[in-house]
Write the structure tokens for this entry.
Amino acid sequence: MNKYVLTLLTVIVSAVFGFAQGPIFQDKAGETSIQTGDNALFLNSGDASIGFQLSKATRNVKEVKGVSVYKPQVEFGGNIKTKATEGVSSVLDNGKLKIGVDITGFYRRAFVANPKPDQNTTWFITGRYSRAQHNILQRAGLTDFDSKTFSVLQFSAGINGFASSPFLKGPNSNGDIINSTFIYGISFGIGGFSNFENLLSVEQYTMAASTTSSPQTSTVILKDKKKGVEGNYIAGDGFKLNADFYYFPQVVLQGRVGLGGNYRLFHMNDYEVSNTSVGVIVNMTKVSNQIVLGLFYQINDVFSQEGRSLKNQVNFVAGYKFQ
């Protein structure tokens, strides 16, 4: 069974990495405040997720007596993904299939009419259902994990912006000098949340046998590997503020490489934490929201020094856009 699961994952990952062109403005939890309307397949190493998004955009132009009349564009759609929050190796947990699911629907509308829809400033609303199985080791020394089912609804609203800047402007494919591109987003969400991604990852094994062949050599056989987190697990209603920002200097590979990151503020009851990421995203096409891949370094609980470096993580995301 492990062999077939790993083979399937390898095939999917290879396909995504080989042909990635979709939107991937995501953090390691799969969240973003930049809502794009592309049809895409995407992969995120942070929550070990694979998913796809489908959307439909209205026509933003019509002919009236031979004259093109533009109107604000509207897009709506949704995405679904499966995930293994403790990593790909935890898809099979002690011989049992263990995956979570996220289902999201969105509606996006431009503030004004624009002949170039991909350069609109837009507002959007989303609704999300999330379900996952979390293994929690409440404190060191316990012999087993406490498995908790995390099932919540979340709602958010936000703004996406697009701007051009003369800073580090450069030539396009025709040799014309054009401005660089800046993309940003901010959103506010309410609903059910947990602090799962800010807890320390741990592994647990059961000792099957132990032998000693000499005073200096001993062999321990382990089985039933389990993965989870350790710490004070908190779940309940709260709110979250997301912000994302990316700059694509036109002078670097004609605007195909972007630098940026994100900020996340999460509040629930008396619990509050801030996470941030910085990284680079690479673009196979000449349109800044059709991304090949991204590599980020996420810093969890940025205002706390206790154990912070143990929870930081390098995250890789990729996507494939299709018609």
Q: What stands out?
A: The two ends are 34 Å apart (CA to CA). The longest helix spans residues 2-19.
